[in-house]
């Protein structure tokens, strides 16, 4: 299965320096908002037509020539703005026992590449993210992923319009994915 965001340029025209730095700062700001559980502020960084997904990856041997699954590989999550709002309401409800007391979470965003797309008001962003999570049991979980984004420039700043997340793990190394990437 090919990711829909694979149509981003492999390497291409960079944004001018000011737009590049503004967008890069938006990535770091987004990580801080999520670390601080400022979810309503995070929602303001999203475009109304956001497509936020984590395809389920299938690891196969390099010589495996078996056909792709007939209905695709599926998704761990495949969400729009309404579904993201529901997830946030659930997390803030007080009924998610794995999040109470609050987990210590830190997102590290790195390997950021930013390119102009065919649309003048959009930029393609490749980045890596490492999410370090300490839960009440005292154990640390680390989730690593690659991200392919489309960010849209608006009068109010950059807004995330699309995010494809590729988890770097064969199996999910935690009991839940109550985090945003």
Polypeptide structure, described:
- By secondary structure, the protein is α+β, with helices and mostly antiparallel strands.
- It has three helices and six strands.
- The chain has a six-stranded mixed sheet.
- The longest helix is centred in the first third of the chain and has 19 residues, at 17-35.
Write the layout of secondary structure elements.
Layout: H1 17-35, H2 39-43, E1 46-55, E2 75-79, H3 81-91, E3 104-116, E4 122-134, E5 140-154, E6 157-167
Parallel strand pairs: 1-6
Antiparallel strand pairs: 1-2, 3-4, 4-5, 5-6
Main attributes of the structure:
six-stranded mixed beta sheet; globular; alpha+beta; 3 helices; 181 residues; single chain; 6 strands
Mean pLDDT: 86
Order of helices and strands: HHEEHEEEE
The biggest beta sheet is recorded as:
6 strands, mixed
Sheet-strand content, in percent, reads 35-45%
Question: How many beta-strand runs?
Answer: 6
Estimate percent helicity: 10-25%
The low-pLDDT segments are none
Helix/strand structural class: alpha+beta
Going across the major beta sheet, what is the strand order? 2-1-6-5-4-3
Contiguous helical run count: 3
From the N-terminal CA to the C-terminal CA, the straight-line distance is 21 Å
Gist of the model:
With 181 residues, this protein is an alpha+beta fold. It is 19% helix and 37% strand.
